[in-house]
Design goal:
Layout (H helix, E strand, L loop, with lengths): L2 H17 L2 E5 L19 E15 L2 H7 L2 H21 L3 E6 L2 E5 L5 H23 L7 E16 L11 E6 L1 H12 L3 E13 L2 H4 L24 E6 H7 E2 L7 E2 L2 E14 L3 E4 H10 L4 H4 L4 E3 L10 E4 L7
Parallel strand pairs: 1-2, 5-12
Antiparallel strand pairs: 2-4, 2-5, 3-4, 5-6, 7-8, 7-11, 9-10, 12-14, 13-14
Helix pairs in contact: 3-4
């Protein structure tokens, strides 16, 4: 088959997906790849499922650096031992493995008792990393990061149907939704020390009356005063990320710096450090776990601490801890 024919076939597939209706059905149990209620599209309604629950990601820290430092055989043994351990302990806490990509594992929990099961699973994984894997691989600085979020997870079946041994390899489930993205971002930061560069900028703020001075704002607030200055006399200090700072400045004349939002006065470059715990969870997860387990040691003794953070796309409170089991 010529590539032109194959590309036309793929374009037709894309058009078919666009024109196909997607329907999601509420679920309480975690769907499997062979779930008969999940369908491919191909001109008919595509059926998916949605469940409101917890999702957990775990990832080995600095796996690239560890591979460079240690023998490939050693790292192969670590990947095998740790992944097998995560699969077993996830199942113990009623979790379902739904994705393994390299050294990153995704665990989804049934709706019932999802907060307790997800947090307990995180504690178990943290315990395994610190007290079992490290014990057996003494010369390896092994660490992992764990992130948990809660909310609506939508899943659909993707891929193509093929005959023979390749059939299973060409099908899978895609998990879409805010919780999957945020849990993954928490995992990216968990058990890491992250330095952030930011800028404190002093400027005269923009006088918005100068922009709307020619407009009659009555009857809302009356007519705007005429001949307003472009900037106010007061000085404000604003904090900007490196990206925000770079996008806000321009240089129209040699030796002059211009800034959107105000008249530039000065700036100072600063740095702050975020020391993230091995286990990170969103506010929803923490509140759900606390509500269901008010007498647990980790709640009573305040092992879960609110953490300052700069997790992208997450504005809520963040809770973290280095919690493990006390085994007698």
């Amino acid at each position: 088959m010529a590539i032109k024919t194959k590309l036309q076939e793929i374009e037709n597939d894309v058009i078919d997906v666009i024109n196909t209706e997607f329907a999601y059905y509420i679920a309480t149990e975690v769907p499997q790849r062979n779930d008969p209620q999940l369908t491919f599209e191909s001109g008919i309604q595509k059926k998916g499922k949605v469940l409101k629950t917890c999702v957990l990601y775990v990832d080995i820290r600095n796996s690239v650096g560890l591979t460079e430092k240690h023998h490939n055989v050693t790292m192969g043994k670590i990947y095998t031992a740790f992944t097998k351990a995560v699969l077993k302990v996830a199942r113990h806490h009623n979790g379902h493995i739904r994705n393994i990509i390299g050294d990153r594992v995704m665990v989804v929990f049934p709706v019932k008792d999802c907060f307790t099961n997800a947090v307990d699973c995180a504690i178990s994984i943290n315990h395994i990393a610190q007290y079992i894997i490290k014990k057996q691989f003494k010369n390896v600085d092994f660490k992992c990061g764990i992130g948990i979020d809660y909310g609506d997870l939508r899943t659909i079946k993707v891929g193509i149907q093929r005959n023979g041994n390749e059939n299973a390899e060409n099908k899978g489930l895609v998990w879409a939704g805010y919780p999957a993205n945020i849990a993954s971002r928490l995992t990216d930061s968990a058990n890491k020390i992250i330095k952030e560069t930011y800028y404190e900028v002093k400027r005269n703020p923009l006088n918005y009356l100068s922009i709307f001075g020619g407009l009659n704002l009555a009857p809302i607030s009356g007519p705007a005063p005429q001949n307003q200055p472009l900037y106010l006399d007061k000085i404000e200090t604003v904090e900007m990320s490196a990206e925000q700072f770079a996008n806000s400045i321009s240089n129209n004349k040699p030796g002059e710096l211009y800034m959107s939002g105000g008249k530039f006065i000065s700036f100072s470059k600063k740095e702050r450090v975020y020391n993230y715990s091995p286990i990170l969870m969103t506010e929803d997860v923490y509140n759900g776990f606390k509500s269901n387990n008010p007498t647990r040691n980790s709640i009573v003794n305040k092992y879960w601490i609110e953490k300052p953070h700069q997790i992208k796309n997450y504005k809520g409170k963040l809770f973290g801890g280095d919690v493990h089991w006390e085994i007698n």
